[in-house]
Each structure stands twice: as C-alpha cells, then as structure tokens.
Design a protein that fits this description.
It is a single chain. The protein is of the alpha/beta class. The chain has two domains: 162 residues, Rossmann fold (3-Layer(aba) Sandwich), CATH 3.40.50; 179 residues, Dihydrodipicolinate Reductase, domain 2 (2-Layer Sandwich). The chain has 14 helices and 13 strands. The chain has a seven-stranded mixed β-sheet, with helices on both faces. The protein has a six-stranded mixed β-sheet with strand order 9-11-10-8-12-13. The structure holds NADP nicotinamide-adenine-dinucleotide phosphate (NAP).
C-alpha cells in the first residue's frame, strides 16, 4: 500500500514506528504544518526513522533532506504520487482535502475528528457518498473512543437493525477521570489538577471542561446513526463562571477551587439519591434530546461503574427490545489509536 500520511504528531509518528519495517506499507508522502515531503519510490524504513527522529526533536518536515525526496508547501502535493491510501492523523480541517482524495480514487483512514464533526451533517453524508460512489474505503473508526469499536458497532446496527435509538456515553477521558475522582472524595480542583498531571487534558484544560470534544463525538455518533445532528443542537452544560473563562490558563487554575463547594454538593446530592455524579453524553434520537454534562447516574446503570479515564458507551439498538450493548476501555491514547488505524489499514489491504 502506498501511503500518504497527513500529520506527523504523536499518533502519526507512532504509526510510522509500528509499520515502517512492514513491507506492506510504503510511505510515499508525509505532511506537517511546514509542508509536504514526497518520494515516488517510497521512503525506506531507515529514512522513515530519520523522519521520526527529526520530528521527535521538534524539527519540521520542510527541513528534511535525504537527497532524493521532494519538499513543497502544499498538502495537496502529497496526492500526486500514485497513493493508495491517505492516513489523516492531523489536527486540521481536512474535509476538502479528503473529498479531493476520494474523488481521485484514494482510500482514506484517519483519526482526525474535524472533517466529520466541524462540518454540516449534509457534508458528512456527501463524504461517505463520495467514498461509495468511487468504491473506496473511508475508515473513521478511531475518531470516537479510539480503538473500542463504537462507530463500527453503530454502523453495523444501521445496516442490519434499524440503527440505535439511544446512546449514553462517557466520551471524554478527562471528564470521566474528574467525575470518578470526585466520587472517590477528591475536590473538583484536586481532580482537575490530577487530570492535568496525568496528561489527560488539552494544554488549556478549560477546553475539556467546556465539553467541545464530547460534543464533537456525539455529533459523529449521531451522524453515523444516520441522524443529521449539528453541534449547535447539542446542549453542553457550561459550568465555568466568567472569572475562570476570561483569564490566563495559570490564573484559571489558581482560582479553580471557587467551584469546589458547588461540585461537592452536587456529588453529595447524587449520593443521597442513590446515584453517582458522572459526566456523560445522552443522545435520545426518538425524543431529539442531545445533552452533555454532569448527571446523576443510578448505581445499577452501566455508566456508574466507569473508572479512571476510561470511556464507556452504552447504546440501545432499535430492535434489541430495550437491552443495551456497552463498550468500555481506554477511549484515547497514542497506542490504542495507532492500533485502530492499523486495523483500518489491514482491513483495506485484505
Ligand atoms: N492522541 C490520541 O489519543 C487521539 C485519539 C483519537 C483521535 N486523535 C486525533 O488524532 C489526530 C492526531 O492526534 P495527535 O495526538 O497525534 O495530535 P498532534 O500530536 O497534535 O499531531 C497533529 C499533527 O497534525 C499536523 N498538522 C496540524 N495542522 C496541519 C496542517 N494544516 N497541515 C498539515 N499537518 C498539520 C501537526 O503538524 P506539526 O507537527 O507541524 O505541528 C502534527 O504533526 C488529532 O486530530 C486527534 O484529535 C488523537
């Protein structure tokens, strides 16, 4: 397989490490924010590891030179190299680029959520319709809960059993960790600080607290379930007061304890009600209710037992007579995401 790799960050470099010596994979182009490096004959495993070394020490692809490769500034240049598959592991809006790749008869595998979530539902449909029209693979299984197979299961239910009528999910490792630690007795600010030191949060931890990542995943699950949901229709609980919003990250972190009392009383109220407070997304496709936030979850609900930063998604297939299917495990992480991408590549190859 001749591969064009879009993005050479944590996941992209791990994919190279795990596949560069496999003769099934021939990398013929790689892009980052600085530009695109291509080589028609394909990079050798040694050259690929040279690229990994360059990126790992903070270098940029525009500075790569092995004597035989070609460096340009346009991402599109990566496509003109007899490519079989584009692997999109960038953090950029690649919708137009992926559409052009499919149009040219190139398969797409990727973990980048933006082309599937930060676009209109009609665009999402158009992208999959283009793949179908061209008889190509568009594999986005890792964009929701990495390698847990959530989207694959939803796709199966859509094609065989009328889709899914309801989904409840802990979709954010960060928020799952914070609610689990509060349930164990940690204060809100302590739990957030722990999540930061564990490396679960974005650089600005408020992005996690604002629930945008969960909202994107909710939209992608809904669209996969053939429901044309837009991010604007998802009701995401906003609990950050303005004094934590309009200041620097350091200042916000210092003042986080201002929320401790309020969060503690929510945790205690949930316990008095025989429940636990968890950060979950609820997608009720029949009632058209899409909500994300802290909710009181009864202790016998599958969501109540999530631990650490794991994701758990519980879905109700339409013809399962109210019985749920839950998938649970690490919903993010460089290794598990890379494994999901490799599963997509192997499926494509076979
Ligand atoms: N890490 C996870 O656990 C995980 C799980 C599921 C999904 N994902 C998604 O997978 C993708 C990759 O994750 P990651 O952790 O590897 O992110 P990352 O370390 O931030 O890497 C992102 C890569 O995309 C490149 N990039 C950004 N804008 C670009 C542009 N305009 N043109 C070309 N390249 C561009 C960056 O280039 P530079 O190197 O020049 O900055 C970088 O190499 C992200 O979309 C992420 O949301 C990640």
């Amino acid at each position: 397989m001749r591969i064009a790799l879009i993005g050479a960050g944590k996941v992209g470099l791990e994919l190279i490490r795990q596949t560069a010596t496999n003769p099934m994979h021939k990398y013929v182009g790689i892009t980052d924010t600085s530009g695109t490096v291509t080589k028609y004959s394909g990079f050798t495993p040694d050259e690929m590891m040279g690229l990994v070394a360059l990126k790992s020490r903070g270098g940029k692809l525009k500075d790569y030179d092995d004597g035989g490769s070609h460096v340009t500034q346009r991402m599109e240049d990566v496509l003109g190299n007899n490519v079989d598959v584009v692997v999109d592991v960038s953090s950029h809006q690649t919708y137009g680029f992926l559409m052009a790749a499919l149009e040219s008869g190139i398969n797409v595998v990727g973990s980048n959520k933006l082309p599937y979530a930060d676009t209109r539902a009609a665009d999402f449909r158009r992208l999959f319709a283009k793949a179908k029209e061209k008889g190509k693979v568009l594999d986005n299984r890792t964009v929701v809960s990495a390698n847990l197979g959530t989207l694959v299961r939803i796709q199966e239910f859509v094609s065989t059993a009328g889709g899914v009528s309801y989904i409840r999910g802990g979709l954010s490792g960060t928020m799952g960790y914070i609610s689990w630690r509060m349930d164990q007795g940690a204060s809100f600010s302590q739990a957030v600080n722990e999540a930061i030191s564990e490396g679960y949060t974005e650089t600005d931890f408020r992005i996690d607290l604002k629930g945008m990542d969960s909202a994107r995943k909710a939209v992608i699950m809904a669209r996969t379930n053939n429901v044309p949901l837009e991010v604007s229709a998802v009701n995401v609980e906003q609990f950050l007061p303005p004094e934590l919003e309009n200041v620097s990250v350091e200042e916000a972190l210092k003042n986080l304890a201002a929320l401790d009392k309020q969060m503690k009383s929510r945790v205690e109220r949930a316990k008095q009600n025989g429940s636990t407070l968890r950060y979950v997304g609820e997608l009720d496709f029949d009632k058209w209710v899409f909500e994300i936030g802290f909710k009181e979850i009864p202790l016998d609900d599958p969501q109540a037992s999530t631990k650490n930063s794991w994701n758990k998604v519980t879905m109700f297939p339409r013809y399962w007579n109210g019985q749920p299917l839950s998938v649970e495990g690490p919903g993010a992480g460089i290794n598990v995401t890379t494994q999901g991408l490799m599963a997509g590549l192997y499926e494509l190859a076979s």
